[in-house]
Specification:
There is one protein chain. The chain has 192 residues and is of the alpha/beta class. The protein contains 8 helices and 6 strands. The protein has helices spanning 16-29, 77-83, 103-106, 116-122, 132-139, 145-153, 161-171, 174-189, and strands spanning 4-11, 33-40, 48-56, 69-74, 87-96, 126-130. Helix 1 (16-29) crosses helix 7 (161-171) and helix 6 crosses helix 8. It starts with a strand and ends with a helix.
Length: 192
């Protein structure tokens, strides 16, 4: 199998590291060679965070270069736009429509770009953009947006639901497991 590349992008504190750990675990249990690499920006201060997940028969490097990502999973709209150059021509973006103002917007030095979903689509990218944050809140916590996004991402993979559930069980503390299973289901079953 040809190596597949997934980028998980967001803002510090949104749960992208747990999402990449869970995805790596899932893919390992399915027999793939997996490499996961975390690149932290100012993650502690709400800065950009990106994680690379690469899998296939044999993966030699954890790094994804521009134009190589099969998927970009984004927790925040501007982050999807920021990492767009890394998407393959036929790649898929799965993005939350939540907007978190970066520091230049907070200080008044810049404005948050308008109509980003249509701007992303105008580049020819396939864009799956929904308010996944509200689904996380429906599941019981805004912090479950990472699992809602993975539920949505599962649409694009031919992997059994049971395998996703086992990875949740292996990586999520038991007291949060039911809420996260609900979050996964809400993401998996939502309509575009």
């Amino acid at each position: 199998m040809e190596t597949k590349n997934i980028m998980i992008v967001g803002v510090g504190g949104q749960g992208s590291l747990l999402a990449s750990k869970l995805l790596g675990h899932l893919l390992l249990t399915q027999g793939y060679d997996v490499k996961v690499s975390e690149v932290h920006g100012m993650s502690q201060r709400g800065g950009s965070v990106v994680t690379y997940v690469r899998f296939g028969d044999k993966v030699y490097s954890p790094v994804i270069d521009k134009g190589e990502a099969d998927f970009i999973v984004s927790f925040e709209l501007l982050e999807a736009a920021r990492w767009l150059p890394y998407l393959k021509k036929d790649g898929q973006i799965v993005t939350n429509t939540q907007q978190i103002d970066p520091m230049p917007v907070i200080t008044g030095a810049a404005e948050y770009p308008e109509d980003l979903v249509n701007k992303l689509k105008s580049t020819g990218a396939k864009v799956d953009a929904l308010d996944y944050l509200s689904l996380a809140e429906k599941a019981g916590s805004s912090k479950a947006v990472n699992i809602v996004l993975l539920g949505r991402l599962s649409h694009y993979f031919d992997l059994p639901k049971e395998a996703w559930m086992k990875s949740l069980e292996a990586n999520v503390p038991s007291k949060f497991l039911e809420m996260n299973k609900k979050a996964f289901e809400l993401g998996k079953n939502c309509e575009e």
